[in-house]
């Protein structure tokens, strides 16, 4: 019986986003992260203004609520120690890309090739300068440790 349980656990781990979520100690809950009706230009402007005051960086998170990897990335970003790093050093703006047909001009402006897939991120300084953009699909299949390294690398 124990052998069957181990095989079942291994199958979950190997099955993509569901497997990534299954590794987590808490249950994975899908969130509505990306609003179709939000105005990302205004949200980015507000985040940049706040980032100047708080001496933080801004992460632009391009994706869609339908994207399993986007959901897992958000989940990992809020696990310890990532949640603390995120709240201390960053402001996050979620930008809905619809079915790869919404807010694409914003992704282009910040050098994020969303046509290659999501999640896709950009890190901005408080002046709106792109410090890093996801050219290599870094967060398509990620781990909490990858997120920790990323957040430590780009913090202000």
Layout: helices, strands, pairs:
Elements (H helix, E strand, L loop, with lengths): L1 H12 L3 H6 L17 H15 L2 E7 L4 H10 L4 H8 E7 L7 H6 L10 E5 L5 E4 L10 H11 L2
Parallel strand pairs: 1-2
Antiparallel strand pairs: 1-3, 3-4
Helix pairs in contact: 5-7
Protein described:
- With 156 residues, the chain is α+β, with helices and mostly antiparallel strands.
- It has a single domain, classed as 3-Layer(aba) Sandwich (Glutaredoxin).
- It contains seven helices and four strands, in the order αααβααβαββα.
- Strands 2-1-3-4 form a four-stranded mixed beta sheet.
- A hairpin with a 5-residue loop joins strand 3 and strand 4 (130-133).
- The N and C termini lie far apart (50 Å).
The CATH architecture? 3-Layer(aba) Sandwich
Molecular shape = globular
- How many structural domains does the protein architecture include? 1
At CATH level 3, the topology is Glutaredoxin
Order of SSEs, N→C?
HHHEHHEHEEH
**What is the radius of gyration?**
16 Å
Helix content: 40-55%
| Order of neighbouring strands in the sheet with most strands | 2-1-3-4
Distance between the termini: 50 Å
